[in-house]
Amino acid sequence: MLFERNILSKLREIRQKPNRKPLVLRGARQVGKTTVVNLFAKEFDWYVYLNLETVKDRAFFTKYDEIEDTVEAILFTHSIPKDSERILIFIDEIQAEPKAVASLRYFYEKFPKLYVIAAGSLLETLLEVKNTFPVGRVEYLVMRPVSFLEFLSAIGEIQAYEAIQQIPVPNYAYQKLMDLFHTYALIGGMPEVVQEYIMHRDLVKLKPIYDSLLVAYLDDVQKYSGNAVKAEVLQTAIQSLFREAGKRIKFSEFAHASYTSRAMGEALRTLEKAMLIHLVYPAIENQLPASPNLRKAPYLQALDTGLMNFFSGVQADLIGTKDLHQAYRGRVIHHWVGQMLLTGMHSPLDKLRFWVRDKKQSSAEIDFVHLQDSKLIPIEIKSGKAGKMYSLRRYMETANHDFAVRIYAGDLHLQVLTNPSGRSFYLLNLPYFLVELLPQYIEWMKEASNSLPIE
Q1: How far apart are CA 130 and CA 274, in angstroms?
Q2: CB neighbours of 314 closer than 8 A, spacing ≥ 6?
């Protein structure tokens, strides 16, 4: 059973562009890139799938020097008439052949009617940087693990799927959505895990899949690194990254290994380029440009919270939890919020943000900062009463807007808080399961604030 991914709508949007470029679909291995393109292919008259890890498919690019010859050979081999339209060519594992990477610019220049998608597990390419995608001749789209809305659709909870998209969410749907979100937060969003859960609803059957995913990432390093020392550091980083995720890290202390800060930093940055992790550096400004401070310890966001839960050994503890803020010292829900914020980010340049104020006797930290309409909206993940949020109040003292968000296990509501200085601001109290819809709820907050004026 296959379930449709939201990214299909993005593929359709790109397809309608008049000056469409070849698309490079980015994402970590096993997030479902090939599956989603195969689904998209059903909307075309002709579909060519090329896997460049095979000698046969790689030969289309190694044997011919001219793009015209390459295209003619591809169409002839797949029995596609030259004058055909609505042709999709999917070049998978493109990193395996540098000439194929270079050919993307010529697809754009000489065959604009062909719809070309390229994908690959970029970890291999980035270990030995030899391939450069043609600047200005391709566009990029990032694919991530299954989102909560996709999860609802996949498991057949159509009423819940429809209810959550009502802004604001109806009160009657709250408890069911929270229960479903806890299941999603427990197992994660890796497509194969979700697929297995749909079929059997058995957590025990998921263990081999989690293990196989980690083995696949480790095999990538073993197969392509070429450098024994670098491979060893990368393997250590991969084996530890899901246990270390959800907190700020120091390269010199990562995984309690004996590698230098430089070696581990290089390994983690490689994994970031492969989209297995995000190294989220803090900003010390609460207005744009708010550049990240690379001298401070980054927060480690891993590919998937379900993998983090499994390899950290906390899955069993999450069963029956009423408030995820209380689980794993708050790391589970903090990590999930980061993952859901990334759901709406489809460009490789999109980044998570957080904020710190690091002054003597006055330190403060905001969990995440969301960019919308050129404003940096602070996001705090807090249980309990809203009145005690020291860091959020410090942030809002000098912010150039009046809007803040608190993520928690309570109900949806808007309130006004006033700082000791006398400055007031709006606080949107948002249930965990609505984070994926944060941009829509920030707009809702702005509209609702008209009936709740700040004095």
Answers
A1: 15
A2: 327, 328, 332
CA angle, 372 then 356 then 402, to 5°: 40
| Stated pTM of the model | 0.91
Per DSSP, 298 falls in state: P
| Distance set, CA 83 to CA 27, 38, 46 (Å) | 33, 23, 12
Residue 126, beta-bridge partner list: none
Select from 186, 222, 298, 208 the least CA-distant residue to 253. 298
* Alpha carbon distance 452, 455 (integer Å): 9
What separation in angstroms does the CA of 309 have from each of 27, 255, 302?
A: 21, 17, 11
pLDDT tens for the chain, residues 1 to 455: 457 789 999 999 999 988 889 999 999 989 999 999 999 999 999 999 999 999 999 999 999 999 999 999 999 999 999 889 899 999 999 988 989 999 999 999 999 999 999 998 665 555 554 556 777 889 999 999 999 999 999 999 999 999 999 999 999 999 999 999 999 999 999 999 999 999 998 888 999 999 999 999 998 887 767 678 888 999 999 999 999 999 999 999 998 888 999 999 999 998 998 899 999 999 999 999 999 999 999 999 999 999 999 998 877 666 666 666 666 566 889 999 999 999 999 988 899 999 998 776 567 899 999 999 999 999 999 876 655 788 999 999 999 999 999 999 999 999 999 998 999 999 999 999 999 999 999 999 999 999 888 76
Cα–Cα dist 194/188, whole Å: 8
Transcribe 88-148 into DSSP letters: EEEEETGGG-HHHHHHHHHHHHH-TTSEEEEE--HHHHHHS------TTT-EEEE--SPPH
Give the start-to-end residue ranges of the domains of the chain: 7-142, 148-278+298-343, 354-451
Q: Give the three-class secondary structure for 254.
A: helix
Helix, strand, coil percentages in the chain from 3-state DSSP, rounded to 5: 50, 15, 35
Q: Are the CB atoms for 427 and 404 separated by under 8 Å?
A: yes
What's the Cα-to-Cα distance from 68 to each of 24, 73, 93, 101, rounded to whole Å?
21, 9, 22, 16
Residue 343 to residue 31: CA distance in whole angstroms: 12
End-to-end CA distance of the chain: 55
User: Domain 7-142, what fold?
Assistant: Rossmann fold (3.40.50)
Q: Are strands 87-92 and 46-51 parallel, antiparallel or unpaired?
A: parallel
